[in-house]
Amino acid sequence: MELNRQNRLASQSFLGSNSESILAQAKIAIIGLSGGGSHVALQLAHVGAGNFVVFDYDRVEARNLNRMVGATARDARLGTMKSNVIRRVIKRVNPRAKVLAISKKWQEEAEHLRDCDVIFGCIDTFSERQQLEATARRYLIPYIDMGMDVCPVAEGFTIGGQVALSMPGGLCLRCYGILTDERLSREAAQYGAAGSRPQVVWANGVLASTAVGICVQLFCPWRNQQTQGILREYDGESHILSTSNKMAYLLDTQCPHFSDSSSVGDPFWKL
Amino acid sequence: MRVLFKITRSLLEIAREDLLRPHAFALERVGFLSCRFAHLKPFGLIVLTCDYLPVADGDYVNDSTVGAMMGSEAIRKALQFAYNNDVGMFHVHIHNHSGSPRPSRTDLDETAKFVPDFWHVKPEMPHGAIILSRDSISGRCWYPGRRKPIPISKLAIVGPRLICVWN
Question: Which of the two ends of chain A, N or C, has the fewest CB atoms closer than 10 A to its terminal CB?
Answer without folding.
Answer: N
